[in-house]
Amino acid sequence: MKFKLLLALFLFTNITLLAQDKKFFLGLNVGAKFANKQYAYRYTGAYQSELPLLLSNQQVHQQLYEYLGNQDFEFYEYNVNYRYTPAINYGALIGYAVTPNLQASIDANFSQPKVQTNYTVKLFDPGNQTSQDQYKVGNVLGKEGRFNGKFNLDYKIDIEKVKFIIGVQGLFLSWRMEELLFELADEKWIYNAYSVHNVTNNITKKTSGSGWGYGLNFGVEYRLNEKFVAQLMYQPYFSRLDYFNTKSQIAAASNYEGVSNKLEHDLTLRILWK
Cβ atoms within 10 A of the Cβ of 198, count? Predict the structure, then answer.
């Protein structure tokens, strides 16, 4: 009991001192995340060829056969133009002014990049007398939750009313698959591959993971009033995220370049209380 009381007193004392020390500052972040398209490969249906396996499943195939007007079909190809859509990036930070021109800060940011692409199946219609092949396009929608923990070291250069900022960053990254939907037959058939993890087809999909990264910070600072400043930052960084369970799965994904450093971008507005 005495230990808990002393610990609480210690924490209260230090938080009070930090609040009185004007070198410490707090802030909010909001901006846009531009994720690397290579990580979006997991949401195309090509990972372990799970989409062709799913469409060839007897129960699924029969259901789609009926939805397509009693037309038989087979998987044809993926859309290779997959990518993440830009996502809103938001979070908070705490920092310390080492000198008037040098600041260190820690960010905690969240985002939810989405993937929207499609695939094609080839139709076989005995009643069709034309010589041209018939195809049907299905949609794919993926959604991913991300957390970025950043350590920033920024140097500010005074130029008249604004300050230019240049710095470096180190990152801890984590991700979680939140949704993967396959659609065909004008949305009559929608299959949530994330919820069942494709157990029917013996596919074990990695649905979360972590990694690390490093990058640069470029920006400008403008003082809004006596208490608040705004910093507009461009933050390119290289990320290394483990999206596959094993090295053999990386090798099996012929269109995927493996787990390596991939360039990603954040455009961030910081509002700091300092």
Answer: 20
Domain interval for residue 217: 23-273
**CATH number of the domain that residue 198 is part of:** 2.40.160.20
Q: Is 95 a member of any domain? A: yes
Structural domain count, the chain: 1
Report if residue 99 sits inside a domain: yes
Per-residue pLDDT of the chain (274 residues; tens, 9 = 90+): 554 455 455 544 454 545 555 688 999 999 999 999 988 888 888 877 889 988 998 999 999 999 998 889 999 999 988 999 999 999 999 999 999 899 999 999 999 999 999 999 999 876 666 667 789 999 999 999 999 999 999 999 988 778 999 999 999 999 999 989 999 988 899 988 876 554 444 556 678 889 999 999 999 999 999 899 999 999 999 998 877 665 555 555 544 555 567 899 999 999 999 8
In a domain, 9, yes or no: no
